[in-house]
Amino acid sequence: MRVEFDNETQLKDTLTRLQGKSELKAEPVRKLRPMVILKGISKDVPADDLIQSIIRQNTVLTELINNGGGENLKLRFKRENRNANLYNAVLSVEPKLYNKMLDMGRISVEYQRVHVASFSPFLQCHKCLQFGHTKLRCTADQNLCSHCASTEHDVGKCPNKDKPNSVKCYNCHTHNTRFNTKMDTKHTANSNTCPRLRAMREKINNRVDYGYTP
């Protein structure tokens, strides 16, 4: 079970009180490893061979990779690229390796120089509009509209998309109703201006060990 606290003092006090209790074990949440995305890898390079190709062809990274015993560079998943002959790959990496790869900007993968960028672990579901999972893993019973907050249709079938005054954030509206707050709701639920989205993104990014303070 995950328990969240308002500040570090509350966390430390709780951990101290639970020390020595044999029936319950508590520990701080472990930091997540940062991730990078490699964009535009040729499909001639099998995903299963990608890590070994990176190790073999990027000597400046070899020492950092070897020091991690092979555990500090892992393929998490593939993503489609706009070019049907290419794919993108998301890797989980150790903080020092993460920073080095971003400094390099591009790395060698077989006969290519592939662009490297940071990849956020932040996820928002396009079905229920909540955070931490994607539509493929969503267990919600209904689709919610990210444009007008309707519970009767999703954004793809929204009859109000061409009406600027109809925009309404489902998450901010729900938060206002539940906690009697006054958040602005005049934005879509997936807008970067959404206070609920920004707060969740910051919370998730704070759990990642980037090796520095972002």
Quick take:
The protein is 28% helix and 17% strand. The chain is α+β, with helices and mostly antiparallel strands and 214 residues long. It starts with 7 loop residues before the first helix and ends in a 9-residue tail after the last helix.
The fold-level CATH name of the largest domain is: Alpha-Beta Plaits
SSE order, as H and E?
HEHHEEHEEHH
When the domains are counted, the total is: 2
Mean pLDDT rating: 87
Number of strands: 5
Low confidence ranges: none
The amount of beta strand, in percent, is 15-25%
In which order are the strands of the major sheet placed? 2-3-1-5-4
Shape: flat
Instruction: Give me the Rg, rounded.
Output: 21 Å
- Helix run count: 6
Organism: Parnassius apollo
Protein name: (apollo) hypothetical protein
What would you note in describing this structure?
This protein has a five-stranded antiparallel sheet. The protein folds into two domains: 35-119, Alpha-Beta Plaits, CATH 3.30.70; 135-205, no CATH class. It has six helices and five strands, in the order αβααββαββαα. Helix 2 (50-57) crosses helix 3. It is flat and about 55 Å long. It is an alpha+beta fold and 214 residues long. The chain has helices at 8-18, 50-57, 59-67, 95-104, 170-179, 195-205, and strands spanning 35-42, 73-80, 86-93, 106-109, 112-119.
